Amino acid sequence: MTSIFLRDCDSYQLKSDSDPQDYKRQEAIWELFTSECVYFLDQLMVLKEVFLAMLTNLQMRDCLPDVDSWRLFANLNELCLVRPYIYAFRESICHCLQKYCLNYSAALFYLGSLKNREDFGSYVKWCERNQECRRLQLRDLLVAPLQRLTRYPLLLKNIGKRSRTEEEESALQSVVEQVDTSICDLEGKVKWLDNYQKVKQLGDSLVWLPVWERDKRAFVPENLKHLLKSVTLENLISHQSLLHKGKLVLTENGKLHNVYLFLFDEFLLITKIKRNKKSPHRSPQNQELDQLLKEGCTFTVLDQPVSLDRLQLKNIDQLNATASGLPQSFIIMHQNRYQQCIAAFILQAPSEAVKVQ
């Protein structure tokens, strides 16, 4: 559905010959527009026109009469009627999204309670086979409004950075603050969102080096560097769940470095800790993440994210660990699609218990 709609919008072309700053502004606005189309047409409307409409139709024929559509879909119809506008992000939109988000955990619980029913299972399977679902399951679609709410600040900030006037930037910043406030109001009330603020705070402290700084062999002339668009870490981790984190010691070029590892749904980040010069001098090895963030420490990503399906762990047995002077150590290998090792990290845990974790 989205592809057809966007194809009809081909008349809108980004003007590459315009001022570079203005072109980036057009890109940021276009990203907001196209991603909103995907969200509205491929997620919200599929929930409404496929799942909710079919349930309503079945109940009119005395099928699944005891299934409560509100407990599953909450204010979905209302959500489909409100659309955000860059400079008029009405408060009612945030309230509408909040209402849906507050019902989300209960909706998942209710969905779980119905899953063993043959009649309800047949209804869900029939809907999920619809080509409009694009292989997405009901659970994937139900979480879409929460994901969209948390993405609005990033999309709006990208536009704000490229504003033409201070007034425009100020107006966008006001909208971002309004959405952030709505998200903060939901903290602790919606389990899915508890992770969001942690990841958001971490994203602001992560440093992603360009390829010519990560790899000294990668020579890129100054006049060509702008062509290599760096992927911002905020985009990379904004919709990931932080599963585990911890401090270890990395052996690199015969030296020991304090590193912090972050395990997400899809990849692992290995980072070097850089202290804020103004913060009191304490060993990062003995500090928790919250304290490090509070003191303004940053975390520089080493190499690149290690995709979990390309990661191999190699234990270093006690004999070899003792011989090399690296107790409680192990190796993380990063492989490419051809099973070649493209990076290896020798890491040392403070204790055997931490290593086993």
TrEMBL record:
Gene3D superfamilies: Dbl homology (DH) domain, Pleckstrin-homology domain (PH domain)/Phosphotyrosine-binding domain (PTB). It comes from the Eukaryota. It comes from Hucho hucho. InterPro entries: DBL_dom_sf (IPR035899), DH_dom (IPR000219), GDS_CDC24_CS (IPR001331), PH-like_dom_sf (IPR011993), PKHG5/7 (IPR040181). One of its GO terms (molecular function) is guanyl-nucleotide exchange factor activity. This is Pleckstrin homology domain containing, family G (with RhoGef domain) member 7. SUPFAM superfamilies: DBL homology domain (DH-domain), PH domain-like. Signal peptide: none annotated. Residues 24-189 form the DH domain. One of its GO terms (biological process) is Rho protein signal transduction. SMART domains: RhoGEF. PANTHER family: PLECKSTRIN HOMOLOGY DOMAIN-CONTAINING FAMILY G MEMBER 7. Pfam families: RhoGEF.
